[in-house]
Amino acid sequence: MPASPPPATPLAGPAPSPSAPTGRVEPTTFLRAAVRPRMLALLAVLLVAAALCARLGVWQLDRAEVRGGATEAEEQAAREAETPRDIGDVLPPQTTFTGSLVGQRVVARGTYEPEGQLLVADRAIAEQSGYLVLTPLRVSDTLPSAAGGGVGDAAPVLPVVRGWVADPADAAALAVPEGEVTVTGFLQSSEGPGMYDRPAGQVDAISSAELLGHWRGPIWTGYVVMVEAEPADAALSAGLELMPPPTRVGSGLNIQNLAYAAQWWIFGGFALFVWVRLVRDEAAGDGPVPEGGDDHGDDGHGDNDGGDGDEPAAADGPALSRRVDVSASP
Questions:
Q1: For the chain, what is the radius of gyration of the CA atoms?
Q2: Residues 6+ apart with CB under 8 A from 80
């Protein structure tokens, strides 16, 4: 019988080229990755987005000032229209001053002490430096017992800012009214201790703790910014200028618009953070497959779902096979 021909032997496909693309961008430095064209184009887009976010944040900040200023003007008009309350009912002497009392309109009756008058240095009006005129008022309609001070029979003393002067030697503007007066003004909280030594008769802060060393008796933990007096203060017609009403810390800005401004600025910063992160990934070799590269895995072979991975995959196209015909001898 003729011998059976041997089975066909398939020919293996060509071995993968060592220089063939692997489907993964090679790692490089951050700087080299950053100057690649697609990274620069992305940076330009994100810079435009960040600039837009910054501009929107500035616009919201302007809106915060406008809306806050309007609100503050309305609140100030309402405070000025209020009927002033007796200072003993609003804030007894030697009691804690709370922030809600700033700008409260009050009235106090008593007698000034000319010998205790002080000038508060380095205070400006319309960008002109000058001095606040701070005069102690011995209040006669608030008993010391209301403060719980227990300091003899001394009447409590109220610091009153009667106004502002440019020249500390202007005697007419510094003249102190005599007799009992009724002062109407706005409350303001006491300041911190002064930091500098001043000539006699001057201080650099309206600090109740320090003023207690200048004046005797119980003292208020805030002071009054005078807006009117009865009888009229003659110094107002001799160069003494009234101060504007005090405002609360943080007033004049709308909180909602401030939050919107911060939100836009955070968005702008995040856009730049995204670009940096993408460049880091690009430098680490995690970028997209270069254009023209094949889709093979990292080992350079195609998928071989039917095998165990030990045998090479066949080349693209139909498999080639060869048969060797062996003729049996008769």
A1: 43
A2: 105, 245
With the C-alpha atoms ordered 143, 149, 154, 155, is the resulting torsion angle positive or negative? Answer: negative
Residue 293 vs residue 233, higher pLDDT: 233
Strands 321-322 and 180-189: unpaired
Q: Average pLDDT of the chain?
A: 79
Q: Is the pLDDT of residue 325 over 80?
A: no
Q: Are strands 85-86 and 105-112 parallel, antiparallel or unpaired?
A: parallel
Name the pLDDT band for 290 (thresholds 50, 70, 90). Answer: low
CA distance 121 to 142: 30
User: Which run of H or E residues covers position 158?
Assistant: strand 157-165
Query: How are the residues of the chain apportioned to helix, strand and coil, as percentages rounded to the nearest 5?
Result: 30, 20, 50
What is the C-alpha separation between 309 and 297, in angstroms, rounded?
A: 12
Alpha-carbon dihedral sign for residues 178, 179, 185, 188: positive
Quick check: helix, strand or coil at residue 63?
Answer: helix
User: For the chain, how many helices (H) and strands (E)?
Assistant: 6, 10
Q: CA torsion, points 100, 102, 108, 110, in degrees to nearest 10?
A: 120
Tell me if 191 sits within 8 A of 97, measured CB to CB.
no
Backbone angles phi, psi at 60, to 5 degrees: -65, -35
CA 208, 214, 219 angle in degrees (round to 5)? 40
Beta bridge partners of 68: none
Cis peptide, bond prior to residue 231, ω within 30 of zero: yes
* AA identity, residue 251: S
Q: How many CA atoms, within 13 angstroms, populate the side-chain half-sphere of residue 56?
A: 15
Bridge partner list, 187: 224
Contacts of 150 (CB under 8 A, 6+ apart): 144
Phi, psi of 3 (to 5 degrees): -70, 145
Helix (H, G, I), strand (E, B) or coil at 153: coil
- Confidence (pLDDT) at 108: 94
